[in-house]
Amino acid sequence: MAENVEKKQVMLPFTGPRSRLWLGIYKSRWPYLFISPFFLLYAVFGVYPVLFSIYLSFTEWKGLGPIKFVAFKNFALLMKDQLFWLSMKNGVILFFLYVPVMTFLAIVLAVILNSRRIRGFRFFRTILFIPYIMNIAAAGFTFRLLLNQKYGLVNVLFATFNIPAIPWLESIWGARISLSLLVVWAWLGYNMVIMLAGLQTIPSDLTEAAMIDGASPIQAFFYITIPLLRPVILFSVILSTMGSFNLFGEIYNLYNGTAGPMNATLTPIVGIFQQAFANLRLGYASAMAYVYFMFIFILTILQFRYFGKTED
Amino acid sequence: MFIRRISYWSTSALMYALLIGVSAFMLLPFIWMVSTSLKPADEIFTIPPIIISRHSSLTAYTYLQENYDILRITANTFIIALSATVLRLFFCALGGYGFAKFNFPGKGTLFAFLLGTMIIPYAVTMVPMFVIAREFKWIDTFLPLIIPGAASAFGIFFMRQYISSVSDEIMDAARIDGASEFAIFWRIILPIIAPGLTSLGLIFFMASWNDFMGPLIYLKSMEHFTLPLVIRSLTGPVGRTAFDVQMAASVISLIPLLIIFLIFQRRFLEGITAGAVKG
Questions:
Q1: Would you say residue A5 has pLDDT above 50?
Q2: Which of A45, A94, A151, B227 could share a disulfide with B253, CB 3.0–4.6 Å?
Q3: Do the Cβ atoms of A98 and A247 come closer than 8 Å?
Q4: How many domains does chain B contain in total?
């Protein structure tokens, strides 16, 4: 086969340094062919949309008819758009409501499951992970049923302890907490599985040696396990950060197509979706998407800077 | 010694208490979902709540079949998920192989570009994608849920890592025997990387099966809906939702994935963790 390729190339009139490049490309036609599906598809469904939405962000368009160029009008409107800033604020609030709790709980559960004194490792891992595979429509409506103010199982159980009915889905903070509960329910197992995989890369004699030297299990956890897990924690926190601004199906189903009471759980992605597909303001939605993208991008870089710095 | 033993047992007890408590929180929605789907409508909101009704029946399930053709909806979901998964896996294996085992001009730049595409959020491409789908006459078809997703940067990255560990000697031996480059990929590489493909395929299948936003944007008529969309559309006006029917649809949407997950649990978790621990 290799010889065949050589013979074919001799027949082609390639000479000089420029032709050498073409020769290199011709020789590599197989790998180019192998990677081409991605790049061809991405040109149409990635590059073109990215450029087209930059253009759209400077226009007004209802999706049909002429596209009207308006320069920076969308961005100027966006700066004064209270709903947009509320959605950004909600992303931050949701982040603080569930990311620290979920991450910490995921680490603790992973450490517990990883310790030798616990039986039923597989059993507990399966149960904790299973919510992750349930689709968000089913999960959202099940939570809606459980958290119903008057008849929901949660408030009925609370009533037996004489706790007054909590307006889970009807009040601003109730809505945010309900949403956080749903997200933690769905994603805790996923994060725990990641932490477990991280823990398995840490040699267990490290913590054991520390405990023999007199460290308590809690000290070993905070001073040895957590620092060694840092790359995995960083990965999980970055994913959760993007996630908290990107909640869509959770809200759409838990609040039945709305953004929660008084827009308490309006996230940027829900806002963009509403502007694009309910209000048909495609230009404005594109401007929102870009401001949101820049924000997330900077946030991710800051997180890398802050948590990702190495010891040395 | 005695105190140490007490503290050992109390720590263990605390660990089990936390595990069991969190497990109960995880299981409660499933139990309530199944329970509600089997109850007659007038027993859904009772105080005290009924977990297993004496009047349990499959009425909600037969209602779903008669009024929503839920088998067809399940078939839709399955067809979309399977074709999206197979197509995406093929391109990921092919692309991963190209990047793992060959050197060619521009390789570094192309790979950096591929990784860079992963930072673009879906929100940015969502609107133009809809416009493209409309131009292609793809609205209310399965195609926008299958074709664009076939380009997966994450999947190619994943397969590249996996294929890097395959030895070059096998490929070279096949080349000397005169096998074509595609035959080497198809007959030698693919069988070797089958476990990695299974892990990745399970992730793709689940993502497509559970996708909510895509079908919400592109599918318009009920006969083309997927399971998550039907669950959503079963919501009535305030106070009028037939929760038993909605929960029955939820149970139907969960069972196939649950079976697949329980069978392939190990591969599935390998796929989930591979990206996190290496990166």
A1: no
A2: B227
A3: no
A4: 2
| Within a domain: B54 | no
Do B84 and B28 belong to one domain?
Answer: no
Residues B185 and A31: beta-carbon distance below 8 Å: no
The ipTM (two decimal places) reads 0.93
Q: What is the pTM of this model?
A: 0.92
Q: Quick check: A147 and A169 in contact, CB under 8 A?
A: yes
Give the mutation candidate from A57, A142, A148, A236 for the B interface (greatest B CB count, under 10 A): A142
**3-state SS, residue A59:** strand
Residue B105 sits in a domain whose CATH number is 1.10.3720.10
Chain A neighbors of B258, CB-CB under 8 A: 130, 133
Residue-wise pLDDT for B171-193, tens only, equals 889 999 888 999 999 999 999 99
Report the DSSP beta bridge partners of residue A59.
Answer: A69
Contact A249, A160 (CB under 8 A): no
Which residues in chain B come in under a pLDDT of 50?
279
**205-244 in B: which are within 8 Å (CB) of A?**
206, 209-210, 212-213, 216-217, 227-229, 231-232, 235, 243
Residue B251 domain flag: yes
Q: What is the mean pLDDT of residues A288-306?
A: 91
pLDDT for A37 beyond 80: yes
Give pLDDT tens digits for A241-275.
888 888 999 999 999 888 999 999 999 999 999 99
